[in-house]
């Protein structure tokens, strides 16, 4: 098989000090994939441009991220602002574009950074500065490489930033299957207490507290096919979060590494069978033992090889 193209660069990482978000996981995932000798290539993307970001984000927000002022806006994603952070998010978003383009060409590709699904047009939120999922799709649409896209968001948290950006983008869709409702930087919100309503193109599937793998995968099987049929996407963007994992401090779900690997296999298989290109990103993961976060993300790469490596 042709090696799957992945994207990563040391510049993805900024010094954010001691933080609940283990930003070093990007390089740890790369190292683990390389050590295993999976049939992939790992290349650096190009840095995202102002033009790319301005299709999605406001000029005032770009200025705040570049200069650090006003500080509240520059830190709206809840990272300490630094020039290094402003640079790192340019590279991680560039990786989303590169992976989307590679997926459109090859059928499968991945970015070894997050999709940043909590970022809104005028501000960041929840460790997400710029929304790479929407930035990448708008770049590809501007170049005529795609028209319709579906984000399959399997992070623990609801993809609220993406949903807000999709409100005036009727050809872009999202299926978010989540066990924790996230809003205004409140990480702990019981989905039983509040479920985000569906919109025309952003579908919301809450997973109840205590759900196990069978329950979670059952919801995925129930909703993935109809979401693909309704959206008729040219490409799927898979937000493969590690935070649904049972030991994650934010997760009320009982999901093992095997459950999450099966989730990844199901998503990839659904796309392959329909001939729809799919790209994946890593997304959240906060388990204190970072090796358990890395294991979820490496399993996503293994699942991609398993599905797309088959003749
Ligand atoms: Zn999350």
Core attributes:
single chain; 311 residues; Arginase, Chain A; 10 helices; binds zinc ion
What does this structure look like?
- With 311 residues, this protein is α/β, with parallel strands linked by helices.
- It has a single domain, classed as Arginase, Chain A.
- The protein is 41% helix and 12% strand.
- It contains ten helices and eight strands.
- Helix 9 links the parallel strand 7 and strand 8.
- Helix 1 packs across helix 10, helix 5 packs across helix 6 and helix 9 packs parallel to helix 10.
- It is globular.
- It binds zinc ion.
- The site of zinc ion has 6 residues, from loops.
**What composes the largest sheet?**
8 strands, parallel
Subunit arrangement of the protein: single chain
Helix- and strand-based class?
alpha/beta
Helical amount: 40-55%
- What's the CATH topology name? Arginase, Chain A
Question: What is the fold's blueprint, element by element?
Answer:
Elements: E1 4-7, H1 25-36, E2 40-43, H2 50-54, H3 59-67, H4 71-74, H5 83-106, E3 108-111, H6 132-142, E4 149-153, H7 160-166, E5 172-178, E6 202-206, H8 213-231, E7 235-239, H9 257-274, E8 278-281, H10 290-308
Parallel strand pairs: 1-2, 1-3, 3-8, 4-5, 4-7, 5-6, 7-8
Helix pairs in contact: 1-10, 5-6, 8-9, 9-10
This protein binds zinc ion.
Zinc ion binds at residues 155-157, 241, 243, 284.
Structure at a glance:
This protein has helices spanning 25-36, 50-54, 59-67, 71-74, 83-106, 132-142, 160-166, 213-231, 257-274, 290-308; strands at residues 4-7, 40-43, 108-111, 149-153, 172-178, 202-206, 235-239, 278-281. With 311 residues, it is of the alpha/beta class.
């Amino acid at each position: 098989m042709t090696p799957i193209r992945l994207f990563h660069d040391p510049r993805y990482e900024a010094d954010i000090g001691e933080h609940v978000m283990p930003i070093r996981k990007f390089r740890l995932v790369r190292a683990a994939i390389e050590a295993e000798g999976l049939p992939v290539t790992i290349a650096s993307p190009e840095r995202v441009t102002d033009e790319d970001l301005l299709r999605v984000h406001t000029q005032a927000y770009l200025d705040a991220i570049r200069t650090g002022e006003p500080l509240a806006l520059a830190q709206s994603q809840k990272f300490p602002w630094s020039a290094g952070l402003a640079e790192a998010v340019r590279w991680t978003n560039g990786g989303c574009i590169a992976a989307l383009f590679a997926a459109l060409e090859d059928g499968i590709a991945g970015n070894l950074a997050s999709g940043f699904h909590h970022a809104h047009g005028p501000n960041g939120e929840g460790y997400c500065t710029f929304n790479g999922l929407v930035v990448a799709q708008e770049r590809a649409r501007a170049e005529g490489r795609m028209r319709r896209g579906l984000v399959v968001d399997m992070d623990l948290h609801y993809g609220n930033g993406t949903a807000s950006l999709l409100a005036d983008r009727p050809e872009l869709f999202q299926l978010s299957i989540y066990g924790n409702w996230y809003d205004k930087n409140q990480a702990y919100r019981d989905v039983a207490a509040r479920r985000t309503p569906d919109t025309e193109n952003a579908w919301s599937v809450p997973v109840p507290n205590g759900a196990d793998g069978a329950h979670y995968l059952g919801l995925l099987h129930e909703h993935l096919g109809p979401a693909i049929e309704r959206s008729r996407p040219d490409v799927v963007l898979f937000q493969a979060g590690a935070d649904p994992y049972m030991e994650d401090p934010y997760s009320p779900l009982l999901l093992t590494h095997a459950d999450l690997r099966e989730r990844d296999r199901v998503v990839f298989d659904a796309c392959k069978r329909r001939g729809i290109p799919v790209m994946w990103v890593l997304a959240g993961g906060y388990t204190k033992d970072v090796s358990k976060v890395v294991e979820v993300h490496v399993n996503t790469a293994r699942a991609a090889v398993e599905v797309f490596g088959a003749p």
